[in-house]
């Protein structure tokens, strides 16, 4: 009897603790053979970076094709909560106009900045419809059957 109750207690404790394990997701760039930090400034070119790392996650909007970004992040999600970013890595590779690597920077989660989004809305013209007006607004507005006079075609004079 004691063994059975201990077994049930151990199984229920294992079931409860396994429900607390997070679901871990890894998104973005995944380094396979070479890491972005292996790129050496002054010796590597755009072509060598492309063959080692592959296509970048994104490129700079303002510096045309001279700055490449390789972005990856790890998220953890517990049961019904939102996923939380636990680790982020952004590698910024800057090229000269000749195509040589001039700088390699690695940024982490602590380098990011939080932006406060503006939640104000622009008002639209017109009036607000009530729920009843929205539901019953199209009742009686059925399309009438088409006749030959309604169909588009050559204009009659």
Order of helices and strands: HEHEEEEH
- How much of the sequence lies in strands comes to 15-25%
Taking all residues together, what is the mean pLDDT? Answer: 81
Main sheet specs: 5 strands, antiparallel
**Ends distance:** 102 Å
Can you tell me the residue ranges where pLDDT is under 50 for at least 5 consecutive residues? none
Explain this structure to me?
This protein is of the alpha+beta class and 157 residues long. The chain is 20% helix and 25% strand. Strands 1, 2, 3, 4 and 5 form a five-stranded antiparallel beta sheet that branches. It starts with a helix and ends in a 21-residue tail after the last helix.
Q: What would a concise description of this structure say?
A:
This protein has 157 residues and is of the alpha+beta class. 20% of the residues lie in helices and 25% in strands.
């Amino acid at each position: 009897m004691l063994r059975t109750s201990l077994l049930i207690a151990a199984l229920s404790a294992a079931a409860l603790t396994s429900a607390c394990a997070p679901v871990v997701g890894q998104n973005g760039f995944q380094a396979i053979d070479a890491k972005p930090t292996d790129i050496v400034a002054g010796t590597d070119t755009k072509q060598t970076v492309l063959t080692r790392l592959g296509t970048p996650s994104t490129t700079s909007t303002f510096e045309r094709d001279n700055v490449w970004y390789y972005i990856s992040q790890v998220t953890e999600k517990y049961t019904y909560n939102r996923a939380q970013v636990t680790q982020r890595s952004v590698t910024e590779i800057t090229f000269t106009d000749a195509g040589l690597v001039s700088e390699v920077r690695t940024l982490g989660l602590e380098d990011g900045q939080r932006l406060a989004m503006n939640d104000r809305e622009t008002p639209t013209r017109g009036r607000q419809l009530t729920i009843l007006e929205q539901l019953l607004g199209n009742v009686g507005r059925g399309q009438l059957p088409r006749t030959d006079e309604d169909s588009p075609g050559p204009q009659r004079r």
